[in-house]
């Protein structure tokens, strides 16, 4: 039922997944849907969270094979190329994000997936010696999500375009380039 719900969300949209269509797709009686889940919404949330977790886990698993931060970034960004923006998984992400703006339980489930992804990314970035690993993981995670969501509007947003730009996030900042954020403003005020 989880797989059937995820497929239907990606094909038809969040609210188009009814008990009847889900039961037909899963090859079960409608009563079985409510026997295993408190509500249809609970099933949709579980399906979205599981599929999103699988994508996040797959991406972070690739990092373990990377020799350094640059290679890891390349692997995780290239993995996004399998999502065209018009595929069922991309649409599931889009539908779930949109629905989460109106559903606190779904928002918490997606936030849990993001938290797990960021914590794994943070640990890997720290091991790779990247400055400010937690902050970098937050920005990198948001950028990767954005790339996946934007592909529906801009299919040319591939790893070849994105990777060189995001690589800058992992580049060390020379000590001479670091400021407290106020130096440039003070000079501009003179």
TrEMBL record:
InterPro entries: Homeodomain-like_sf (IPR009057), HTH-type_TetR-like_transc_reg (IPR050109), HTH_TetR (IPR001647), Tet_transcr_reg_TetR-rel_C_sf (IPR036271), TetR_C_31 (IPR041583)
The entry's DNA-binding region: 18-37
Pfam families named in the record: TetR_C_31 (PF17940), TetR_N (PF00440)
Record keywords: DNA-binding, Transcription, Transcription regulation
Domain HTH tetR-type: 1-55
Name of the protein described by the UniProt record: TetR/AcrR family transcriptional regulator
